[in-house]
């Protein structure tokens, strides 16, 4: 099937990593631009393959080039609602090619071609041909497919605009719906190939953490292939509306995570946060010194105020883990009115990169817009606290209330001790023992030593042996 392709194609190459030392060229990624897009069209010329811009053979070793992957499909049973889910498979299918690495999704893609593949004569034309075959194989409802791969910079720029417009169309459709409006959520286990205990729960308010699949996409996918990796979850009994805990969701997550996790809160980073695979767009992380939450995404390369960058944080919570204080999430979820609602939503957000903040202007409550710092305002805890105090961020009030609560508890402890003393004085007691050191015998392998012990008793009974 792949006889004209000079490298091997098989699912066994899926986990292949191409390090900088072994790469011929890098395509898209953080130092360039790129995107992938699947479009359902009325009519498509089946088998059409096109590479617009320089081929691998015309590229310079060690350089970075922009990349666009356009997949146009048609078929009687295909609907626009399936574009997002089919597009999400680009990642997996590209990685079947030995010597080609594909990371992330949408306009976050990051690819590399290995030196070995380039020497074997591998070209982007071969990648396009492979995708054409694999997509048809994976989705029999595709009747015709055409693939265009773009590496010309200005064409990739134009393609990026087109792709972003399409992503926004898909995302904004889901924004109109709330978790409360539906009886069914969806689960996705596509990422279990590398994060075996990860189960995505996709609801109208919580777009999947990869940012590429929303509730509508899941609905279309589950309808097309009910036995596939995306499946229905009856919402069932609500255990906690604010935290987003559902009896049935817990049961499905327990089953699909092979019993690893029994509870999930959809809208909190505390106690039982959603599991994280590895392709999340951003991470919400708890900042204990200020009792607030920060957000960082993969485009932010510097260190967060915690002193570690996104990559280190992602390492701590990815792989299908549930780590209290961390939650992988999509940037779209930050546009939901339920965004971390159990933790206080934006009132609890005390740091985020400027590019995220700028993209969320219409979604951050107006009174908080100038109060949430970015890397321009603070890059360490001390400066962060100073900024929050000066800006009058609600977290400062929260910290004061917490300090007050602690003071009250201490005062209550003092009062209680006082009451005990008064009680002691009022009760007719008699000192029965005084010892500078008294050992209380126990049977559990520990010794209890009381220093300067004074023992009082209301009644002393003396019995003859
Ligand atoms: S991140 Fe979640 S929704 Fe996205 S592909 Fe992976 S499992 Fe599916
Ligand atoms: Zn994932």
Which ligands does the model contain, each kind named once? iron/sulfur cluster, zinc ion
Element order: H for helix, E for strand: EEEEEHEEHHEHEEHEEEHEEHEEHHHEE
The CATH architecture of the largest domain:
3-Layer(aba) Sandwich
Q: CATH superfamily assignment of the largest domain?
A: Carbon monoxide dehydrogenase alpha subunit. Chain D, domain 4
Spans of at least 5 consecutive residues whose pLDDT stays below 50 are none
Distance between the termini: 99 Å
Tell me the structural class: alpha+beta
Counting DSSP H or I runs of 4 or more residues, the number of helices is 10
Helix content: 25-40%
- The CATH class of the largest domain, by name, is Alpha Beta
Give me the Rg, rounded. 29 Å
Briefly note the CATH topology name of the largest domain.
Answer: Ribonuclease HI, Chain A
Characterize the overall form. Answer: elongated
The neighbouring-strand order within the major sheet is 4-1-7-6
């Amino acid at each position: 099937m792949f006889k004209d392709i000079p490298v091997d194609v098989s699912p066994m190459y899926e986990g292949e990593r191409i390090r900088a030392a072994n790469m011929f060229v890098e395509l898209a990624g953080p130092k360039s631009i790129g995107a992938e897009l699947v479009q359902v069209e009325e009519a498509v010329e089946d088998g059409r393959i096109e590479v617009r811009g320089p081929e691998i053979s015309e590229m310079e070793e060690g350089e970075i080039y922009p990349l666009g992957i356009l997949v146009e499909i048609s078929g009687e049973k295909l609907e626009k609602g399936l574009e997002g889910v089919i597009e999400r498979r680009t990642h997996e299918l590209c990685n079947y090619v030995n010597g080609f690495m594909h990371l992330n999704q949408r306009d976050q893609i990051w690819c590399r071609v290995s030196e070995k593949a380039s020497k074997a004569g591998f070209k982007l034309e071969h990648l396009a041909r492979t995708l054409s075959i694999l997509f048809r194989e994976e989705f029999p409802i595709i009747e015709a497919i055409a693939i265009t791969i773009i590496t010309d910079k200005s064409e990739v720029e134009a393609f990026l605009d087109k792709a972003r417009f399409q992503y926004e169309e898909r995302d904004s459709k889901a924004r109109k719906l709330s978790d409360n409006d539906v009886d069914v959520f969806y689960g996705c286990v596509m990422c279990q190939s590398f994060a075996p205990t990860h189960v995505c729960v996709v609801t109208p308010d919580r777009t999947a953490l990869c940012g590429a699949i929303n509730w509508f996409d899941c609905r279309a996918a589950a309808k097309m292939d009910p036995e596939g990796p995306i499946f229905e979850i009856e919402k069932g009994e609500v255990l906690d509306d604010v935290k987003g805990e559902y009896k049935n969701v817990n049961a499905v997550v327990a089953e699909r995570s092979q019993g690893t996790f029994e509870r999930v809160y959809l809208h909190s980073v505390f106690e039982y946060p959603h599991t994280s695979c590895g392709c999340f767009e951003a991470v919400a992380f708890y900042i204990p010194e200020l009792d607030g939450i920060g957000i960082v995404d993969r485009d932010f390369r510097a260190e967060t105020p915690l002193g570690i960058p996104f990559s280190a944080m992602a390492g701590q919570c990815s792989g299908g883990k549930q780590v209290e204080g961390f939650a992988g999430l999509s940037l779209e979820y930050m546009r939901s009115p339920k965004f971390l609602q159990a933790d206080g939503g934006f009132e609890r957000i005390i740091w985020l990169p400027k590019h995220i903040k700028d993209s969320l202007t219409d979604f951050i409550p107006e009174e908080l817009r100038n109060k949430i710092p970015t890397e321009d305002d603070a890059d360490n805890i001390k400066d962060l606290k100073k900024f929050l105090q000066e800006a009058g961020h609600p977290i400062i009030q929260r910290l004061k209330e917490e300090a007050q609560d602690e003071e009250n508890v201490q005062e209550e402890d003092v009062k209680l001790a006082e009451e005990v003393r008064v009680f002691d004085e009022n009760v007719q007691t008699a000192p029965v023992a005084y010892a500078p050191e008294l050992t209380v015998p126990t049977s559990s392998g520990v010794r209890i030593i009381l220093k300067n012990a004074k023992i009082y008793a209301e009644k002393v009974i003396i019995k003859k042996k």
